[in-house]
Write a structure and sequence with these properties.
heterodimer; A: about 700 residues; alpha/beta; Rossmann fold; Glutathione S-transferase Yfyf (Class Pi), Chain A, domain 2; 4 domains; six-stranded parallel β-sheet; 34 helices; 21 strands; elongated; B: about 190 residues; four-stranded mixed β-sheet; 6 helices; 12 strands; about 30% strand; globular
């Protein structure tokens, strides 16, 4: 990771205006977005958008031709190019031919992508952004910190200062007055400009129509007052039919700003008369800049389904801490990382891709149904292929991949840590490792791993056998969780088997882009777990469950190792998460809770992979309620705790404030006990509460239920 | 009026529009003239009212109106619109579930009077109210016009500290005037 990038993160984290504004916005957004979608079937809507956008991505060339034909038939000039330099050249020539001295722009990400303003200004043409936020950022000499709210990082005082220094003295930090001032100043620019530049939100092929949405009304002025209108349209904006406008126009305002519809929508299908009666010159530039290539990539084609609403930014636990500037480029946030890798260069995403904690919040709200975390992982994989693995990481994974070496090293570590641990925690690590224990204590490595203690458990022989996949954390840090699981299943008359050949699930390797290592882990585990005849393979770690159930398959697919797929599917069909299994056993009457218990308040934290990849969230809550607990609702219960596997080690400065929010939300429930289904979350949250010397107890659901089942 | 109108009113008011309904054209005209008078419309820059040509004006004595209310201008152009306080135009369709007005705006006057002045009075026939976006897009087709405008409430921004502020580049006030049309022979419509 580059020092400059780390510095930009720290700068953002220490900017209270930025984190304050983004934090408050993300909280308000969640509620207002939900309200905007009331009465709509979001799943059906986004399925329709994804289908229509995916169709367009598969027929890009054909739709671009059709759009060109239809637009030109109405008198529009259409220029299509893959080369950003040619876009700049076309506009500059057009401006020169028509003696253009001043240009007004309404928001266009495509123009920012090709740094158009700078180019035109160097040629002596005045270019004015007219979207208020964009104008402020332009005057301040900054870049937008958010795709939809470019100046969200600035206070009214800062805006007033920018106006005073760059436009006219005497402006006070009064928002309505600042807006009125901007209206007056920009009005003159609108009236004097000879050319207007816009982007477009949709380009309809069958009618040659551009659809442009704004709230301020600037696009209406930009397309009405100057005699020349140039629209820069990325090819991803193409859609086949006019009817396709409906789902996008239904979702975009709701997802972007929680509005039912933006104040203005303009649909332009050809030149219209100017105010002096002359016909307007309408130029549409269909810009490719690797979009065709992207649409032909089997993995990244789905990124063409983006409608640029920025909702992935608004729900991201990392974005709300660091904002857009750390991304260093035009496009920000999760989708921005992907777009930067394509429209700029893969290596430009090297640092920023590491910001993704893989919580999956964005996948729940994306109206284009894009698997953003999945695509970021794919970037990681390609970067690892291109750059090679960092040496230290390579060394770690070679150990993880050598099962017996990995396990014996963990045992050795258990002995070595002795001087550092107390009450099962490591609270301070020496030297360069100190940052890891600055904001939360780490669990001590267990003296005896689960694979050893398991052998000592006396199980009644059961007719049914279930294999237990422990995963590294339960095996080496929290063997008591495994013991509780065996205890519960035994109560249901099930015998637990622990296949000794099981090893790391490969998630750490996969999330670092080391897919070959992950594939090796997958093969080892498949062999071990399919060796016994069992009804289920159960795991009490959602990350491991996801690996076993989904990621072994996708890792093999990514690497083209198709021969391994049938066995991966066979395993996937047997895998179940702990809470779903126990819920099933309780529902079948094979497990019973102690009767008539009133156990008081408890609260539940949703782990990312359990909630958003496995779609399990009610089962553990229902089980706790059935046991006799009053499950207190936690604010943002399904927001990431900041653990993210090795994320908390790589980016502790981001992990810490995410955890802090989580701890506050836990405390605010007033419950003395918080449970969750993931040992990783237990490690993070328990460690965080320990550092704060809180008395709130943190447990895995398996431990709590083991106490309450008959 | 029915539930569809109520929905429209609710949605439009939620985005800071004013919604009025009159049982016939003359009542709507009366309302507008009173409004213009109260808004201080006069024959001076920043106080003009510009009224774009529209079906509503058919059969209306424009000359007489301009005499009664100096500053009310029917000969719309860019210069006069830029210094007008109020703009008046007729919209073609209304969408209830978003509180939106839709217009064939290929004629530039329609856009000048609804973008430049501070106040926009939007006339709309009551029978042009549709339930939702798909029904509106079935009525107004891009094949037939080069510029379709959708207007939902007043011009707005939240670009400074996320504080909602009305009236950035477009009108800060949108006044929607529905009027019923009676098609019976001999009636005034």
């Amino acid at each position: 990771m580059e020092t400059k990038f780390r510095e930009s993160i720290n700068k953002a984290l220490h900017n209270p205006n930025l984190t304050g504004a983004l934090g408050r916005f993300s909280e308000a957004y969640r509620i207002s977005r939900q309200k905007a979608y009331e009465g709509y079937d979001f799943e059906a809507l986004r399925t329709q958008i994804a289908e229509r956008k995916s169709y367009a991505a598969s027929h890009l060339d054909e739709l671009a031709d059709l759009f060109t034909k239809n637009a030109e038939a109405r008198g529009t000039k259409v220029f299509r190019t893959n080369d950003p330099a040619k876009v700049r050249e076309y506009i500059l020539n057009l401006a020169r031919e028509n003696g253009v001295k001043s240009i007004v722009k309404s928001k266009s990400m495509a123009s920012e992508e090709i740094h158009l303003n700078k180019h035109l200004e160097l040629a002596g043409i005045e270019v004015g952004e007219t979207d208020l936020g964009e104008w402020i950022v332009q005057l301040a000499g900054q870049t937008p910190s958010h795709m939809v709210m470019p100046a969200i990082h600035m206070t009214k005082e800062e805006v007033a200062t920018v106006f005073n220094e760059q436009v006219e003295e005497g402006q006070k930090p009064d928002i309505p007055k600042l807006v009125k001032f901007a209206r007056a100043k920009l009005r003159t620019k609108f009236l004097n400009a000879e050319m207007g530049i816009t982007g477009a939100n949709i380009a309809v092929a069958e009618t040659g129509t551009l659809v442009i949405v704004t709230n301020e009304g600037n696009a209406r002025l930009v397309t009405t007052l100057p005699k020349i209108h140039v629209a820069i349209v990325g090819l991803e904006k193409l859609m086949e039919k006019f009817e396709d406008v409906v789902p996008v126009l239904t979702a975009l305002p709701k997802s972007a700003t929680a509005q039912l519809l933006t104040s203005y929508v303009s649909m332009i299908s050809g030149p219209v008369p100017n105010t002096d009666g002359t016909p307007k010159q309408l130029h549409i530039i269909l810009m490719d800049n690797r979009r065709t290539e992207m649409s032909q990539d089997p993995k990244f084609k789905q990124a063409m389904q983006c409608i640029r609403c920025a909702s992935c930014l608004n729900v991201c636990p990392v974005f709300r801490l660091v904002g857009g500037h750390v991304f260093g480029k035009v496009y920000t946030g999760g989708i921005g990382t992907i777009l930067t890798a394509w429209f700029d260069a893969l290596k430009s995403s090297d640092d920023i891709q590491s910001l993704c904690i893989q919580c999956g919040n964005c996948t729940e709200v994306c109206p284009g149904k894009i698997d953003i975390p999945g695509l970021i992982l794919e970037l990681r994989r390609r970067l690892a292929v291109e750059n090679g693995q960092p040496l230290a990481q390579k060394a770690i994974f070679s150990v993880v991949n050598n099962r017996s070496l990995f396990h014996s090293m963990l045992r050795a570590a258990s002995l070595m840590q002795k001087p550092l641990q107390k009450d099962g925690f490591i609270r301070h690590l020496p030297f360069f490792l100190s940052e890891m224990t600055e904001f939360r204590s780490l669990p001590a490595i267990a003296e005896a791993p689960f694979r050893d203690t398991f052998k000592k458990i006396k199980q009644p022989a059961g007719k049914e056998k279930i294999a237990f996949y422990a995963g590294c954390l339960i095996d080496f840090a929290y063997p008591e969780m495994g013991e509780s699981l065996v205890k519960i299943l035994n109560k249901a008359g099930i015998e637990v088997v622990f296949p000794e050949g099981q090893t790391c699930c490969g998630a750490p390797a996969r999330y670092s882009g080391a897919y070959e290592v992950a594939a090796q882990n997958a093969n080892d585990n498949i062999n071990a777990l399919l060796a016994n005849h069992v009804t289920y393979v159960v795991s009490a770690c959602p990350t491991c469950t996801v690996a076993l159930k989904k990621e072994f398959i996708s890792t093999f697919e990514s690497l083209g190792q198709t021969a391994s797929l049938p066995r991966a599917h066979e395993l996937a069909n047997k895998v179940i998460d702990f809470s779903s299994l126990v819920k099933k056993l309780v529902d079948e009457g094979r497990l019973k809770f102690k009767e008539g218990q009133q156990l008081g308040k408890i609260t539940y934290h949703d782990s990312c992979h359990l909630k958003r990849t496995l779609h399990v969230s009610q089962q553990p809550r229902e089980l706790l309620t059935q046991a006799g607990y009053e499950v207190a609702k936690m604010y943002e219960a399904d927001m990431c705790c900041g653990m993210g596997g090795s994320y908390s080690l790589k980016l502790p400065e981001i992990s810490a404030p995410i955890l802090e929010r989580k701890l506050t939300n836990i405390k605010n429930t007033g419950a003395p006990l918080v449970v969750m289904d993931c040992p990783g979350c237990v490690m993070q949250i328990r460690g965080g509460l320990d550092k704060q010397t809180s008395t709130i107890k943190v447990e895995h659901t398996v431990q709590r239920l083991a106490c309450e089942l008959e | 009026m029915d539930a569809v109108f109520d929905t429209f009113k609710l949605r439009a008011e939620a985005v800071s529009a004013e919604v009025h309904h009159f049982p016939h054209k003359s009542a709507a005209l009366d309302f507008i003239l009173h409004y213009l008078h109260d808004a201080g419309v006069s024959d001076a820059p920043q106080a003009y009212a510009v009224w774009a040509h529209c079906p509503f004006l058919e059969g209306v004595d424009q000359k007489q109106l301009s005499t009664t209310l100096p500053g009310l201008i029917f000969d719309v152009n860019r210069e006069i619109s830029a210094v007008a306080k109020v703009g008046i135009s007729q919209l073609d369709w209304a969408i209830a579930n978003t509180g939106t007005l839709v217009q064939d705006a290929a004629c530039v006057d329609q856009r000048l009077v609804s973008t430049l002045p501070l106040i926009h009075i939007a006339l709309i026939r009551s029978d042009r109210l549709l339930p939702d976006l798909p029904s509106a897009l079935a009525k107004i087709r891009p094949e037939r016009t080069n510029y379709i405008s959708f207007i939902t409430g007043a011009s707005r921004t939240a670009d400074i500290e996320r504080v909602l502020t009305i009236g950035v580049h477009g009108p800060e006030k949108l006044i929607i005037v529905f009027y019923d049309v009676c098609f019976e022979p001999g009636s005034v419509n």
